[in-house]
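Notes, Module 5: Reading structure tokens.

Key idea: the token line is not a picture. It is a compressed description, and you learn to read it the same way you learned to read a sequence, by spotting repeated patterns. We will look at two proteins. The first is printed below with its tokens.
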Amino acid sequence: MTDLTAVDIMIQPDPVAIARARAVNARMPLSIPAGITLDDTHLPHITMLQRYLITENLEQAYAAVTPFTGSGGTDAAFVTDPGQQISPTTKDWVETYHPNQTGANYTAHLTVGMATVVDLKAMQAETFQEFDVHPAGLAVYQLGNNGTARELLKAWPLT
């Protein structure tokens, strides 16, 4: 089997949006065992595409993704913490991101974490101060569990 790397091709938000996303995340109780605390290896981002890329062709894939994609990624395609296994849901999400989450099915959103429906409904009932998100760059990150952006592979800052 060819070695694969699970990637998230994303828009990197500006520092103000990152700070706001982290503030929202800090209010989310870790009521889901696999919950996410945003930190230096779990970054807020706007996903454009998630795919498995053939590891040996990563440099070429940054220029043109489709010819370098694969399927059937295992835990080895992801960044994991010691002893961690990648959930089947996460592996399937990456496997089917295209076409299930692209085109007319695409919903742009700033990833801020995970919480139970009960916790999210409680947060939605509170006053929320809206904020703008300005792109600071584009990047490719290797994914961790639950679609987290774990390891920077390539970045293109916007100037």
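Here is the second protein, with the sequence above and the tokens below, as before.
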Amino acid sequence: MLIPVSSAFSCWLVLKLFFFFLFRRVLPEKQSLFAAKVGKAAAGIFFSDEMIENKITDPKNLQKIMPVVEEHIDDFLRNKLKKQMPVVGMFIGDKTIHSMKTVFMTELESLFPQVMKNFASNLKDDLNIEGLVTEKIRSVSITALKEAFYKNLSGDLRILSIYSASVGFLVGSITAAIIFFIK
């Protein structure tokens, strides 16, 4: 009975030592390397330059902002232009405002995709997703990481400990049976 119990204890202890060394030695020593690799992966996989550009230049996004732009143009033609240029404002009626607004909106619909593409290109250069993710991971304290890990996975770790001890007990029992039958 000693072999199965000691084998179960050994497997349980190995699991505990694994997490002890993970949070005391491995992660503190490799945090910067890990952060750089995750940052590179995040920039390449999750936030690729192409994905950012496609999202910003998506015609659906343009259609979402066009009503706001049209509202501002209407306000400009009806109110601000008349205040800034009262003489011109006297000669502009609803029909002229509607015509000018249509011309402006048509021009903006052809101009916005290129403007947004240029914006996306500049944003990609300025944003530096890889650097941001890398720095965020480097700045997380190992203690906070350990606490979050144990808090969020405590039930799973308990089950893993039970499985580990059970496997150890099973291996110990098989070993004890082999020893018993060999004698």
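Summary for the second protein:
- The CA atoms of residues 100 and 106 lie 10 Å apart.
- The mean pLDDT is 88.
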